[in-house]
Write a structure and sequence with these properties.
heterodimer; A: alpha/beta; Rossmann fold; seven-stranded parallel sheet; about 30% helix; B: about 250 residues; alpha/beta; 6 helices
């Protein structure tokens, strides 16, 4: 049985959903999954990591303040010691920073943001988008260790896989870069990459003062994040972190609602793999309707409040 | 300060993907090219750093000779010289072999600060920056949207899923640049004229065999044709029904 090492993120005992999905992707290949995590609450998060598919959980102690180069070096050592044939991390901002370093330590290339991961014996195959999803490549590698990051919202965690063996290990010190402070996000605010539902606004919202309508609809769904088109981010109406598109974030939520977004190629590149797409636009010829499963033609200011109430009512049922 | 900006020539957003007949890659016929968006931010940050601390900016790219157009644009904006590590088809290089070729050149240049984009908008790996730093044994901060530098190090801010991290680092370092860091300047007429006299060296990069094996490249499955539910707020009940019963997402 092959061993796969997974870098799993947690915060205050709460495992990151994208990390659970990543463990699930490894577990689905029948491999033995060793999850490595760190930070306050790591031991509490171990139960969830086990349920998602990790047979072993290694908690790095003393890894805070966090130094990505130190943690990457530790992960590479663990890969070596366990004889793992693959290393995975979720394609979060942290995972995308750590995984290339681990890969370099292992002198192996990296496959980022994979949407498919499978094994035959001890050799692995990945699927990943090229040119922002305009093409899909199926790839394998001759690297000593297959290293990849998994796209959030694509894989499923295992269900109640079991209770893991939990061990601790002292983290390396002497990192070349160290996180000295973290300005925590507003509690409960989901990142656009991780949310199950994304409600995005474009130029059709006419001004930053109207984005409350977008936020209200997102809030009605409960597990939603707000997104934005490049035009409104460039205009300064919304923060960069919300931009969906080729020069922003690529999202793959269960439900994507585009409001007042015409659907330029640059935007479609970031959201075309969403499972269900809804478009609301006053221009019935807007390109966004070509990728939308369901379209509503009309004035967003009239539609959004009604839709928000209807979603609330539907969810309360 | 010896500063390097690593940039990449990528197909424009409008490029159409057409798998080659052998299913091993994409047919570039008809593609136009541009400097990868985030690499423009990297160049700008390199130029700002030079203006503050002195030194010079070398633009390094791995690509075909035709990439001299994009490198020349960087020189017109203010970079001092350019290096093309010649690779007729850079898409055949995986992130590891790209990072190793760049690391060898950066070491040879004696640079102490490297800026590159957080991701190149063709293969979207976002891997070369941190890999390069690891091969060099340098500090690296990725996806930086705010940067304060001193002669020996600095503090960079990056936005993660759990909040904004402040990262302190020492030089030498690799910084990968995200939106918000700066507004790239345009080349002035004087810059464009001056760039013609600036040197662009073409060199053979270190040969590092690829590890990636392409099994197949195909177009994504077409989305099932959607439909217009209706017009205005009156369409909301039908939309809710569709989301609940057909799409089962509510």
């Amino acid at each position: 049985m092959a061993t796969i090492v997974v870098f799993a993120e947690q915060s205050k005992g709460q495992a990151r959903r994208a990390s659970l999905e990543c463990i699930g992707a490894a577990f689905a290949t029948n491999a033995k999954v060793v999850a490595v995590t760190f930070g306050a609450g790591a031991d509490a998060a171990a139960t969830a990591l086990g349920a998602a598919g990790a047979k072993e959980v290694i908690c790095l102690t003393g890894a805070e303040p966090f130094s990505p180069d130190s943690v990457a070096a530790d992960l590479a050592k663990i890969v070596g010691e366990t004889g793992a044939k693959a290393f995975l991390a979720a394609a979060t901002v942290t995972g995308k920073d750590i995984a290339p370093r681990v890969a370099a330590h292992l002198d192996s290339t990296l496959f980022s943001d994979v949407t498919g991961f499978s094994a035959s014996g001890e050799s692995f195959q990945v699927v990943r988008p090229w040119l922002a999803g305009k093409a899909i490549a199926t790839l394998t590698s001759q690297a000593p260790v297959l290293c990849a990051t998994t796209r959030p919202n694509v894989f499923a965690p295992a269900e109640a896989a079991g209770a893991p063996t939990v061990t601790t290990r002292a983290a390396s010190t002497g990192g070349k870069a160290t996180v000295t402070a973290v300005e925590a996000k507003v509690a409960g605010k989901l990142d656009v990459k991780e949310a199950g539902v994304v409600v995005s606004g474009g130029r059709g919202m006419k001004g930053p003062e109207h984005f409350g309508l977008i936020e209200n609809l997102a809030a009605a769904f409960g597990n939603a994040a707000t997104g934005a088109s490049r035009a409104v981010v460039d205009a300064g109406w919304r923060p960069h972190a919300e931009q969906v598109g080729q020069t922003g974030k690529t999202v793959a939520p269960v439900l994507y609602i585009a409001v007042g977004i015409s659907g330029a190629i640059q935007h479609l590149a970031g959201m075309r793999t969403s499972k269900v797409i809804v478009a609301i636009n006053k221009d019935k010829d807007a390109p966004i309707f070509k990728v939308a499963d369901f379209g509503v033609v009309g004035d967003a200011f009239e539609i959004l409040p009604v839709l928000t109430e209807a979603v609330k009512a539907a969810r309360a049922r | 300060m010896k500063i390097v900006a690593c940039v990449k020539r990528v197909p424009t957003t409008e490029a159409i993907a057409k798998p080659t007949s052998d299913g091993q890659g994409l047919d570039p016929a008809g593609w136009q090219y541009m400097l990868s968006f985030y690499d423009e931010l990297a160049l700008e940050e390199a130029l700002k750093t030079k203006e503050k601390f002195g030194g010079d900016v070398t633009v390094v790219t791995l690509g075909p000779s035709e990439a001299s157009k994009e490198v020349r644009e960087c020189l017109a904006r203010g970079a001092d010289n350019g290096v093309i590590l010649k690779e007729a088809d850079p898409s055949t290089r995986d992130p590891r072999s790209t990072a190793k070729a760049l690391a060898a050149k950066i070491r040879a240049l004696g640079a102490e600060l490297v800026f590159t984009g957080r991701v190149a908008t063709d293969r979207d790996h976002a891997a070369v920056g941190p890999m390069l730093a690891t091969y060099l044994g340098w500090a690296c901060v990725s996806e930086v949207f705010a940067l304060e530098l001193t002669e020996t190090g600095g503090t960079a801010k990056r936005e993660t899923e759990h909040g904004v991290e402040s990262v302190s680092f020492s030089l030498p370092a690799v910084i990968t640049c995200n939106k918000g860091l700066n507004e790239p300047r345009r080349a002035s007429l004087k810059g464009i004229m001056g760039a013609k006299a600036k040197p662009i060296a073409e060199e053979q990069p270190e040969g590092v065999p690829n590890q990636v094996i392409v099994k197949k490249v195909e177009l994504p499955p077409a989305r099932k044709a959607g439909r217009i539910i209706g017009e205005g707020a009156a369409a909301v009940p039908a939309l809710i029904t569709a989301l609940r019963n057909e799409a089962q997402v509510l």
